[in-house]
Design goal:
By secondary structure, this protein is of the alpha/beta class. The chain is built from six helices and six strands, in the order βαβαβαβαββαα. The chain has one domain: Flavodoxin domain (Rossmann fold, 3-Layer(aba) Sandwich), CATH 3.40.50.360. Strand 3, helix 3 and strand 4 form a beta-alpha-beta unit. It binds flavin mononucleotide.
Length: 203
């Protein structure tokens, strides 16, 4: 099973990216968490560009999402909102629907940032993503300057919380796809759980 991690920060030393990179080393057996690194390459969203031939970065982003069973987003707050680059990325998915019914967990490296988390949850809800609260984490005390993947994984309490969140996320993903398979219109067309022979996604 593949999970895509998206950091809302473009900073090289981003604590949100560090949190996701740490999570990538703590996944349960058979689960891969890939941290998406193309956020800064997406063009500014313009519905007029959303036609063939699509910008390569957009096609790649959508393809990575379609091939992922779930998404974990970890984002900073800028001026009480979500960073423009993250909102831009989400805008590219509104019409194409890669997040429709997709299980999404929200990680939060700085829990003071309540406005951005609320705004992100609202945007994802209106896009019909399936938010999984039991797989979401608020890191407390917040991560700060200098925190990297190593400092996250070497904090026992935090690495245990990440492992528990990932286990809950995988359970929620399994349930989501089990429910989807019971739908009369379910089509096993697109692979999404990572194993091409056995997997399917909601289309
Ligand atoms: C331009 C700018 C605006 C910010 N606005 C807020 C804010 O409104 N609320 C907040 O809690 N933190 C705010 N911050 C702090 C960041 O959210 C915080 O440093 C975060 O951990 C950075 O994440 P990163 O390390 O992943 O880039 C702001 C930072 C910057 C650079």
């Amino acid at each position: 099973m593949k999970i895509l991690g998206i950091s809302g920060s473009l900073r090289t030393a981003s604590v949100n990216a560090a949190l996701l990179r740490a999570a990538a080393t703590l996944t349960p057996y058979g689960v891969t968490l890939v941290v998406y690194d193309g956020l800064g390459n997406l063009p500014h969203f313009n519905p007029e560009l959303d036609k063939e031939p699509r910008p390569l970065a957009v096609a790649d982003f959508r393809s990575q999402l379609s091939n992922s069973a779930g998404v974990i987003i970890s984002s900073p707050e800028y001026a009480h909102g979500i960073p423009g680059v993250l909102k831009n990325a989400l805008d590219w998915l509104v019409a194409s629907g890669e997040l429709y019914e997709k299980p999404v967990a929200l990680f939060n490296a700085s829990p003071r940032t309540s406005y951005a988390q609320a705004s992100l949850a609202e945007t994802l809800t209106v896009m019909a993503a399936r938010l999984i609260p039991e797989a979401s984490i608020n890191v407390s005390p917040p991560l700060g300057v200098g925190d990297d993947k190593l400092s996250v994984t070497s904090t026992t309490n935090l690495s245990t919380r990440i492992e528990c969140a990932l286990a809950s996320f995988v359970r929620a993903i399994d349930l989501t796809y089990a429910e989807a398979m019971r739908e009369p219109n379910w089509k096993p067309t697109v692979t999404s759980l990572g194993d091409e022979k056995t997997s399917a996604t909601i289309t």
